[in-house]
Every structure is written in structure tokens, then in C-alpha cells.
Design a protein that fits this description.
Blueprint (H helix, E strand, L loop, with lengths): L2 E8 L6 E6 L4 H12 L11 E5 L22 E6 L12
Parallel strand pairs: 1-4
Antiparallel strand pairs: 1-2, 3-4
Length: 94
């Protein structure tokens, strides 16, 4: 067990957040830790399951995968998004 810093890029948030998680946390716990900083502040809450993926990856990590087993580096950026959504940032409004 050790604190592990990640950078969170939360869907529809314009702010990247530093999130301290534990190496024994699973990806659902990582998503919940990231949500604290975005949902209800700059991002509207939605129904559904939050998923975590490495920034730029197309597939999410398994929900029960532990941080220690994910191959992430300290301060690496992960994307948090609602499963079933487009999983991409919205198109800019003109």
C-alpha cells in the first residue's frame, strides 16, 4: 500500500486534476476519487458507471484492476468517462 499520484482528465471537465490514490485501489475507486474533484463542480452528474482508461487508449482498464497492476507511472494521465457515453469530449459549440 502506497500513495500513487495520477492526473485525471475527467469527461467534460476543462481542468486536469492531481488525484492521490493507493496502489491497492481498483479502477472503480480511482474513478470515484477523480469524480470528487469534478462532478458537482464543473461536470453534471449522470447515471451510469464511470470507467478509467490510459489517456489516448481506446479500451478502459478492467474495473477490478488494481493501480499496482495497471502499469501506470506516477503522474500519468488517465481519462475518466461514463460508460455508454460517447467517451469523448463534446464538440465545441460555435
Amino acid at each position: 500500500m502506497a500513495l500513487f499520484p495520477l492526473t485525471s482528465n475527467f469527461q467534460e471537465d476543462f481542468v486536469l486534476q492531481l488525484v492521490a490514490v493507493d496502489t491497492e485501489n481498483n479502477m472503480d475507486e480511482v474513478a470515484a476519487a477523480a469524480a470528487v474533484h469534478s462532478v458537482g463542480r464543473r461536470v453534471k452528474a449522470r447515471p451510469g458507471v464511470l470507467r478509467v482508461r490510459r489517456q489516448g487508449a481506446s479500451e478502459p482498464f478492467a474495473r477490478d484492476l488494481k493501480v499496482a497492476d495497471a502499469g501506470l507511472r506516477p503522474m500519468e494521465c488517465v481519462e475518466i468517462y461514463w460508460e455508454g457515453s460517447t467517451a469523448n469530449l463534446r464538440e465545441p459549440r460555435h
